[in-house]
Amino acid sequence: MLDHLGLRVADYARSRAFYERALAPLGFAVVMELTAAETGGSDQGCGFGPPERPHFWIGAGTDGVMSSGAVHFAFTAASRAAVDAFHAAALAAGGRDNGAPGLRPHYHADYYGAFVVDPDGHNIEAVCHLPEDASR
Predict the structure, then answer these.
(1) CB neighbours of residue 30 within 10 Å
(2) Fewer CB within a 10 Å sphere, N or C end of the chain?
(3) How far apart are CA 108 and CA 110, in angstroms?
(4) CATH assignment of 2-134?
């Protein structure tokens, strides 16, 4: 059901150092980092998890995914069409667009996601990790 979770932090360097130490005994480390240049704004962040893929993110900035809501979480979608349907349904239900459905290659080549801010300001996402031909 949940694909990943992200928290906005006030001091990125301090929080990254904290979580690197706190999560190491659990076998989790930074497996991906995003710079402000990669996000196209001021956001920066990193994702922790097992070597395969990050499941817990922290980030800081003044725009974009990690700063638009109090919490960021993503639901796993079985297909790209399901991501599109999530986005449309969330907007129709009163959500605010925070990133139209599309590829996010700065995460990985097949990362297809859509973002909506819910009525409480949380940034929710649906994501499909499958290649286009496999997600139909």
Answers:
(1) 15
(2) N
(3) 6
(4) 3.10.180.10
